[in-house]
Amino acid sequence: MPGAEPCPDDQIDLRDYMDGLFHGHAAHLGERFAITPDSDKGRSCSDLTDPASLKQLLDFYAETSFPGDDARSSVSYWSQWYFGLLLPPLILLAGAARSQLPASLANLRLALDASGQPQGFELTDPYVAPALDADTPFDRLAPLIDGHLSPLVFSLSARSGVSAKVFWMNAAVVIDYTDEVLWSGSQDIDLKAITGSPKKPDGNRNPLFSPYRPSGSEATRTRRVCCLRYGLEGVARCQDCSLKPTYGNDRRPLVLGASK
């Protein structure tokens, strides 16, 4: 059996940083994210920008999991699982390797359960460029924001009729969760610069800005844009619900998939 191809001189092999990466509050991600070169399992994330392919998937998910409920709510809920299982491992991995984010749609494959709900991801290309000393947080996350989230959010919004703001805020909440709960040791990427800046360095609006309304306490904060989960039978409202907040010490995980 031929050996693995050697790592290009100007690239980082992310497989070298996987051991022990997911522990503590991030332990569940060890079963949800893998680096598997040339895998053909699941579905390529690039398929999700194809209108017909995405509509078929979202319609199936709504009909299978939430028949009779608001289909817009089911699409937002689907995206919460997607972002909750994808963004933390990509950010943690890039932080550990001090690299750019390996976020290309073409190099990520999505595993789905029988209902079409996201269950995990495989990265099929282990090589990525190192970060530069001059890189800003937006430079580090550019492959994710511009190359992955932007086309996916556009496609999700176009196929569902749900405002793009809902999906961007679903992603921003996950980035905040990664910063507040999952970082350990040195924080290599200033994630608060991502969710705390109204504009990107090029002057364009930052769609990930400010997922929460201003509050004096995390225990009383609410989402700026509702995630629409209230429209799904049997699904608890998020603990930061802007319509009916859940205050107290029994607050549920901020991110779907954050516990088994």
UniProtKB/TrEMBL annotation:
InterPro entries: Fe_iron_reduct, IucA/IucC-like_C. It comes from the Bacteria. Residues 194-217 are annotated as: Disordered. One of its GO terms (molecular function) is catalytic activity. Residues 76-208 form the Aerobactin siderophore biosynthesis IucA/IucC-like C-terminal domain. It holds the Pfam family FhuF. This is Siderophore-iron reductase FhuF.
